[in-house]
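Obj: model holo form, ligand = adenosine-5'-triphosphate.
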Amino acid sequence: MGVPTPPSSPLLTVNDLHVVFSTRDGDVSPVDGVSFEIRRGETLAMVGESGCGKSLTCLALLRLIPPPGHIPPPSQILLDGQDILTMAPEALRQVRGGRIGMIFQDPSTSLNPVLTVGSQVAEAIAAHQKASKRELKTRVITLFEEVGLPDPASRYGAYPHQLSGGQRQRVMIAIALAAEPDLLLADEPTTALDVTVQAQILELLDRIRRARGMSILLITHDLGLVAGRADRVAVMYAGQIVEEAATEKLFQSPAHPYTRGLFASIPKITGPKQRLAPIPGVVPRPSRWPTGCRFHPRCPDVLSQCAATAPPETRPAANHRSWCWLTEQPKAP
Amino acid sequence: MTGSIWSALQRAWRDPGGRVGIVVLVGLVLAALLGPFGLPDPLAAPNPIAGAQPPGPDHLLGTDPLSRDVFARLVTGARISLTVAGLAVLLAVTIGAAVGILAGYLGGIVDSVLMRLVDGAMAIPRLFILLLLTLVWERIPLAAFILVIGLTGWFGTSRLVRGEVLRLRSAEFVQAAGALGASSARVMLRHLFPNATGPILVAATLGVGEVILLEAGLSFLGVGVQPPTPSWGGMILDARSVLMTAPWAAVFPGLAIVMTVLAVNLIGDALQSGFDPRSA
Amino acid sequence: MIRWLLRRLAQAVATFLVVTLLLFLLMRVAPGDPLARLVDQRRVSPEELSLLRARFGLDQPIGQQLGQFLQGVSSGDLGVSIAHYPDQVSTLLWTRLGPSVLLGGTVLLINFTLGVWLGVFQAERRGSRWDRWLTRLSLTGYSVPSFWLALILVAIFSLHWHWLPATQMTDPLLSGSAPLATKAIDLVRHLILPVLTLSLVSLASAMRYQRTAMLEVLRLDFVRAAAARGLTPGQVRWRHAWRNALFPMLTLLGLWIPFLVTGSVFVEAIFNWPGIGALAAEAILGRDYPLLQGTAMLAAAVVLLGNLLADVGHLLLDPRVRAT
Ligand SMILES: Nc1ncnc2c1ncn2[C@@H]1O[C@H](COP(=O)(O)OP(=O)(O)OP(=O)(O)O)[C@@H](O)[C@H]1O
Ligand SMILES: [Mg+2]
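Output (holo structure tokens):
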């Protein structure tokens, strides 16, 4: 590990990340130049519509992109300054589950159906730490308590199909926490769950983060989930980040038309019933990405140059980045 | 139906292995059809005194122990093998489809009885059923041989078709057609059959390979195609006694079997992955 | 769970009844009388024939024949062999069982170790050059007639090079008092060629089955999730992926268990292997209908047993099935 990292430095730095799938019809790049940081102890939310590359970004961080997908240079994923992309297999294995834990969208398919949930948590511990069978079992039960699984001791020998969706996701969280990671990747952890369970799970994640001083990358397509939970938000569209800001700032003054579109489509529980205004159209497939700003065909505020040239990074405010020709121009008072 | 067969063939053609299979099989069929012209008589009077001669200018692949031209017999054997396999599988698929549609569509007691019979029949290894059936003839006539192979090959197909019918029966368009007053038979033929073509075609293709192997095996055991009609299995049987002195007489018929069955299996494989992209 | 098992058992018994019925009918509907053929083929006098007909019950009304047949089968009596008259078919089968189990068992062992391993290997390298070539190779093996391959191997390894024995299970010249190791080596030398033949032609199905099953599983989320928690590739492959790709293999194993018993008619015949397959081949030559019928009956019984065992295995290995 060598040089101790100064406390202010980010835990994870992603530089110009690309994920490329080589197909018969040529290469497509569903993640196309993504850069961001995650600091210690913070929650970074990544939002965007379905198909914009959130999951692939998340998987890329642990080099879990399925073949024929690959991560070409000059992509960099620096964990405490060490590039995950150039790690030897054993070092990579130690990072997976050890320093970075991960939970998935659908807990019912993410657990092995023929193994008990207890043994799946136990193997996650054993992959990173030496422990006797007895120790493993007590630690699993402690973890089950921590993630709020009812009746933890008797759940050890349960099979996934004997648990509810919310309980399964709690098991997944226990697995991700098993080796006390510094960063938790949560890819739409509540999408497959009931609304009431959703809130409980998010609450749990937040509590654990505070208790353990862990960082979280929370991926979601629902901006509504982000308020009050994330410190910062990165908005993704068509394989790129289009806006990034502290959560409050983003909610007060979203700079990118796409972000504003996402806000317009959040269902409001309070207040008078409003018609939702989803952004017309869908995210194009990676092989069909438009030239210039990729959002321009769907953008309500499209300018003449948008189709021709991709917008540069602009800073509407401190700690607020946006890639849009609108923010490039001085705002009218 | 012909349309879907055609498109399936096109799909098989796009697969490199499938293409090789199609080319080889077409070549074999052509050879079987045109072969006899200009070749020595495959049934030429046996000349045991001359014995087996090695491959040479007179006899491209040599001669068998009875001095008959191996190449000519191979070509005629191809005709026999392909005819037996083709007709038997056609018969099997027809019966299998008919039984499957009947069982699936009528349901109830008909379905139960038919499927219990199929269960029983499938539990007996096919080779044994065939042996029991062929054994009652001293020398089984070719037509009876084809019949027997066809009659023992439909069990799997009937299950497959029945499953497909049950699946499609619950599909909306068949129910809609029923509501419009179309007769049951018309519903079955117009809607169910074309939809089940894919899996049937795969099963039939793989069935051809299986039958060629079975036919060769039975002929080798002496209960299949009867001499002097040349068959690949029979040729290997004849050559068994001269394995060391005239290996060509046994090697080439075997290679012919491997080539043919491999071609058929390559096509079947390509068809299968065409219908189900995940299995590729 | 017990209920489910009992239901399966009842189904198997019912199917076996159908099998018996079918085999009985097969003999009846076949043109001609299975015994009549003996007259012109062998030295059976008309008097002997009518005696035989009575012995086989062929002179009785068909209903009664069926009754007797069923009764016989249920008490393990499969009738009397013609070629080995007056030996009981069941006795003949019993004495030939050991060698068939030895041969079939060795082949199954190879198929379910090497074949499984190769199938997993291929699935993990799906679409690679290795995968493509192994697929082609296995498809070729699948297309080779076993009897021809056996002859070729015999020609090369026995007749030409004299490396390995071509027939029998043991060397008849080996004295009974030879040391155990010598006997074992002798047995292994006799096993090599038949096992090689059968493995080469059947390994392909194990590989292809396993490859397909593994491909199905490798796409699933929990495999990726297992890798994400830092397990070694071996743990992910075997403990997580393969454990779930095992069930189709179990079905295949059930389909292959009969092979243990009946062996291969062709290969046993060519190698003169003293098993049930060779017995069946002898029955063909001797036109021994009852013997062949008994063999078929045994084969069917083992097929059903194999299916049943596969179901039980499934039950033991899959907690989801256990719950139902
Ligand atoms: N294995 C793959 N091969 C080829 N393309 C892929 C593969 N996996 C994902 N993609 C493509 O990459 C794009 C981004 O996929 P990704 O799963 O990252 O989206 P997402 O933002 O997570 O969407 P969702 O909200 O639906 O989960 C999609 O257009 C998808 O078609
Ligand atoms: Mg996703």
